[in-house]
TrEMBL record:
Protein name: cysteine desulfurase
Obligatory cofactor(s): pyridoxal 5'-phosphate
Domain Aminotransferase class V, residue spans: 4-365
Keywords: Iron, Iron-sulfur, Metal-binding, Pyridoxal phosphate, Transferase
Species the sequence originates in: Tepidibacillus decaturensis
Record lineage: Bacteria, Bacillati, Bacillota, Bacilli, Bacillales
Amino acid sequence: MNDIYLDHGATTPVHPKVFEKMTPFLQERFGNPSSLHSKGKIAKIPIEDARVYVAKALHTHPTRIVFTSGGTESDYTAIVGAALAQREKGKHIIISEIEHSAVFEAVDFLKQFDFEITYLPVNSQGIVEIDQLKQAIRNDTILISVMYVNNELGTIQPIQQIGDIAREKGILFHTDAVQAFPVMDIDVSTLPVDLLTVSSHKINGPKGVGALYIHKDVKIRPLIGGNQERNRRGGTENVPGIVGFGEAAKILTETREEKWQKAQQFKNRMIKIWKEKLGEEEFFINGDLHGVPSILNISFPSVDTQTMIVSLDMKKIAISGGSACAAGSIDVTRVIKALHLPDPIAKSAIRISFGYGNTLEDIERAAKEIVNIVNRKRK
Ligand SMILES: *Cc1c(COP(=O)(O)O)cnc(C)c1O
C-alpha cells in the first residue's frame, strides 16, 4: 500500500529538478553573495536568475521581487511594512475574516501603534462581498488585505474588483497569493495590487523561502534592516532556498495548466464516487465548488474531522482539517467558523488538496477509503 499525500495545501514535496539545482549551493558553491571574491560572485548570479524566474511567473520586473523567509514573512512585511510607512496618512486597515494567521498576527502587532482593524465577513460560500468592503472603507483607511485564494476552502476572492476600489480611493492593496500561485497565472502588470505574497514550498520548492512583490510606487518600512535585497530585507540570502524557489517557479510556469486539468479531474472523480456510493445527503461541499481545482473542503457529518484524519492516516492517506497551523487541536478553524455552518458540518470539515505526483488510482483509493470510514460510522 503506497502513501497517498493529499495535503498539498500544507506543503508540497521538492521537485527532483529543484533538488538537483539546489545541491551545489549546499556544497562547493557555498559563498556569501555579498563577498567580492569569486566564491561570492558565483553565489550572487544564481540569486538574480531566480529573481528573474519568479518575476516572470508574476509578469513583472525582477527589481519588484523581494525574497523573504516565506509566505508568513511576506505577509507580515507587506502589512506591517506598508502600515508603518503610511501611518501619517491614517491608521485604519481592512482584512477579511478568512485570512491566513500570518495576516491576523501582523494586524494584531499593529494595534500597539493605535491602528484600528476591520474584519470583513464572508458569505456562506466563503467569499468577501464587495458591498461590505465599500461600507467598511473610511477616510483614514490606508490598507486592505484580502487573500487571492483561501487555503482551507480554495475559494477565489474578487481581487480585481477589490483592487479597483482600492486604487480609486488611493488605498494600498495587499493580497496573499500563496494558494493562488500554484494554480493561477497571476499577472501583476494588469492586476490592481500593490503588494502580493507567494511562497516556495507550496509550489514544489524548498521551505523557508518566499517572495513579496512590491509595486514600483509603493514604499514599505523594512522589518529587518540590512543592505541585501536592495535595502528591503537584511540578512545573508538563503542561496540554496532562493535558487530552488526560482527553479520551482520556472517549472511551474511551464507545467501549471496540465497539472490543474488533472486536479480538476481528481476532484470531479472523488465527488462522483461519493455520490454513487454514499448518496448526496451524506456529504457537503464547503465553500464555492467553482474554487481552485487544487483544494476540496468537504464534510461528512457522520465522521468528525479528527476521526477522519486519524482513520485515513492508518491507511497511509494524508489529508488535513483545514489549516496545518490549527491541526493538533480539534477546534473548528476560524475559516470554517466564518461560514456559519450547522455544527455537524463544521465539526466534520476536512481539506483534501491535490498536487504533483497524485494519480487517478490514488484518488480513487482515497475516495473509497472515505466511503468505508463513513459506512463504518453510520452502522
Ligand atoms: C502556507 C501559507 C502561508 C505561509 O507561508 P509559509 O511559507 O509557510 O510561511 C501564508 N498564506 C497562505 C494562504 C498559505 O497557504
